[in-house]
Amino acid sequence: MTLVKATIRNLDTNKAVSCLFNPTEYAFSKEVGWAEAPDRGSNIPTLEFVGGKPAALTLSLFFDTNDSGEDVRAKYTNDLWDLALVNDAKLDSKTSKGRPPRCMFEWGNAWSFEAVVTSLTQRFTLFLEDGTPTRATVDITLKQVHDPGRFPAQNPTSGGVAGHRTRVVQQRETLDLIAAEEYGESRHWRHIAEANGIANPLRLRPGMRLTLPPLDEPAR
Asked: Which residues touch 39 (CB under 8 Å, ≥6 apart)?
């Protein structure tokens, strides 16, 4: 069986960082929102559900460029660091300000995890004589941005056009909102509509899976 490399893809630029060594383990966590309501005369308060919280994926990645003598930052870890930095070219649909990129963790075709980086720590443990780092460990936490209905989500290249990302429509989402988040400008809603055969954008329904082709690709 061919070894498949795990990747973390920047969804704003479509640039992927392949893990030099696949993770030895990873962990998922999820908190559930329950509020405590005082209940006089009771030993414990009444719990009221106030909504779910996003799942988090944590993993540790190892990178080494000592054999080639390359700077491990330039070769690998800078691209991961960029996932934690504001991209002024991508405007948040609500604040109209720049935001860090969304990303996708993928390992094979079985599942994927669309997320944002909420924590990133890199440690350098080997250096050339001039101080150039050639070995690094990156601890990263990714927080879920879409509820796929089932978890973990099906790989976005499964069930769609090869190489195209997909997105499941959530409650109260509109095509122009999705276009603003995925392509940076709401005016690209028509590109999504044409790619998915949507004649009436008002009929967008929660649960629909949309194909998101690159802007430079003609719609079908």
From this structure: 45, 46
For domain 165-212, give its CATH number from 1.10.1200.30, 3.10.350.10, 3.40.50.2020, 3.30.365.10.
3.10.350.10
Provide the residue type at 87 as one letter.
Answer: N
Q: Kindly calculate the radius of gyration of the chain based on its CA atoms and give it in whole angstroms.
A: 20
Span of 51-55, 66-70, 120-124 with lowest mean pLDDT = 51-55
Rounded Cα distance, 167 and 152, in Å: 14
Q: What is the pLDDT of residues 138-149, one digit of tens each?
A: 999 999 987 765
Fold entry, domain 7-144: Elongation Factor Tu (Ef-tu); domain 3 (2.40.30)
- Please calculate the CA angle 120-123-129 and round it to the nearest 5 degrees: 145
Cβ distance 43 to 49 under 8 Å?
A: no
